[in-house]
Automatic annotation (TrEMBL), chains A, B:
Residues 3-134 form the HTH marR-type domain. InterPro entries: HTH_MarR-typ (IPR000835), MarR/SlyA-like (IPR039422), WH-like_DNA-bd_sf (IPR036388), WH_DNA-bd_sf (IPR036390). It comes from Paractinoplanes lichenicola. Coiled coil: none annotated. This is MarR family transcriptional regulator. SMART domains: HTH_MARR (SM00347). Pfam families: MarR_2. Gene3D superfamilies: Winged helix-like DNA-binding domain superfamily/Winged helix DNA-binding domain. It comes from the Bacteria.
Amino acid sequence: MIDDDLVDALAQLSFLVQNALAEIAGRHDLSLIQTRMLGILRDHEPTMQDLGRHLGLDKSSISGLVDRAQRRGLVTRVPTAADRRVTLVSITDEGRRLAAQGAAEFAEHIAALTATLPPDDRRTLTALANRVITASRIP
Amino acid sequence: MIDDDLVDALAQLSFLVQNALAEIAGRHDLSLIQTRMLGILRDHEPTMQDLGRHLGLDKSSISGLVDRAQRRGLVTRVPTAADRRVTLVSITDEGRRLAAQGAAEFAEHIAALTATLPPDDRRTLTALANRVITASRIP
DNA sequence: CCGAGACGGTTCGTGGTACAAACTAATTAG
DNA sequence: CTAATTAGTTTGTACCACGAACCGTCTCGG
């Protein structure tokens, strides 16, 4: 296989990014998964199940995740009248605040990581990454 | 910040790679962290503490990690005569087999993800990723 | 040389994460 | 109107991670 270098580079890069994410989350006493959840809830008010689908988690895992976030006031459960089985998950102001702050710190961290790259290279990297991402979604 | 796109692209790409890693690990009933450990042990026979440093884990976490891997016959504890406090962690043949297989599957997965990129672009992506990685190590 | 402290690992207690299986309440299908 | 399905919760198990307390083993200063 010629592309061992690519494999290594992408693996290491992913750890770099994930570690940054985890470190920033930890700064606010959040886990990676909680941060991801808040990120989703910034733009959506999904059902438990939809949330689970977004995060790739079992419904029982979602129950616990939402429980803990709710206990900390980051999230609320909203019952629905139409179908009384389903409950929506909604982010609170406090959760939104945390999410925004984490996102900002993360952006800053990535900016620092890529500061040595000239703007053209940054654009190229963005474009290539996006090509890989869209390629992964089509099949 | 102009580079929101870069931030998003790198974050998503990292999840793509990590999910692939986790999925492949899970196929062999391994966790991501166990896979990382085996990957390290392929080329090293470190002390508990060194292993912890490589993985960024507390020594108490390493004890448990090695316990579980040892129970499954992937790893052994090797006492040292020179300093009877330290114990080395050594990969077993079975562990090596699993690590090799996982690495192969991962490489294949990445190859599939990047199959749509022409070779030149793959090389560019590798080079850019490596620039970011080395940049992160120097400070 | 020997006792105080440093060091490497383990153990224990706590809490987050994840799943599967069993369960409840509500809805929908036949 | 009953039977099957669906959304979510609960329970039990296992992993992961940490800090604090602990046990042997070294090492160093006096």
